User: What shape does this take?
Amino acid sequence: MSVDLHIHSTMSDGTQAPSEIVAEALDKGLTAIAIADHDTVAGVRLALDNARGTDLTIVPAVEISTEHDGAEVHILGYYFDLRDRELGEVFRYVRSARLLRGDEIAAKLRQRGIEISLGDIEAESNGESLGRPHAAAALLRKGYVKTQQEAFDRYLGRGKPAYVPRYKLTPFAAAEAIRAAGGCSVLAHPGLGVGTRMIRDLAEAGLNGLEAYHSQHTPSNTRRALELAEEYGMLVTGGTDSHGPGGSHPVAIGECEVPDECFEALLAWAQENNAHIPE
Ligand code: AMP
Ligand code: FE
Ligand code: FE
Ligand code: ZN
Assistant: This one.
């Protein structure tokens, strides 16, 4: 219980600010954490500032949601250049698409007599990366649902009346964008619906690692990922995917067994590949 390489902050759809995540990590004696927000690195910068002068290592990270053959595939990036212009453009483009989609979600809700504006949804976020959890929070705040989960079940989930798909890259494009920025690309939670064929194709296209350890993985999900990583010579990473207390995936940070070697191997990869390791 000492490293957690997949955490969301308030900069995307988590409920804890980067400063709170850093404080909790220090409190729990974690040695390395990665804030892997959706399509933004704002939380990484804040965490780096907050952890300066402590024993806690902040691993620069991001999570990009992609789609392939209609299935969701999430790509994590580690140790890329936080100032890379092209990757920054990709994030900005995807975030602006998220904003337009928030407006469409609000319009669909209004068609069903729910008085909600884009502003109400934005008010639940930090204005960085807008997502469905913010729409769920707005529905909860306005009393239309009793829990955020109910908001997904009744309105926002796939196939529900206010579901709006959003612009997504392909997993190959996301992994390539991370590679081009000098980073390490890792397939997030492969156990959550990613087929072995897809994993093989990504491995052959140059994917660097698999997130074998994840709070929602079964032991057999983890085993398959470890076997495939071994077969293709890929790195193995792990994390909770915590979205903070009350968030859409409420597991506390550090509460997923991730071997320290995962972090050590990732850092060694960064050193060998001249990646961007923050001071
Ligand atoms: P978005 O990227 O805006 O589509 O939002 C995706 C996020 O919404 C995921 O990271 C989860 O945090 C949450 N989410 C997606 N589907 C559900 C669901 N069916 N129930 C609860 N939370 C969900
Ligand atoms: Fe999320
Ligand atoms: Fe994910
Ligand atoms: Zn995540």
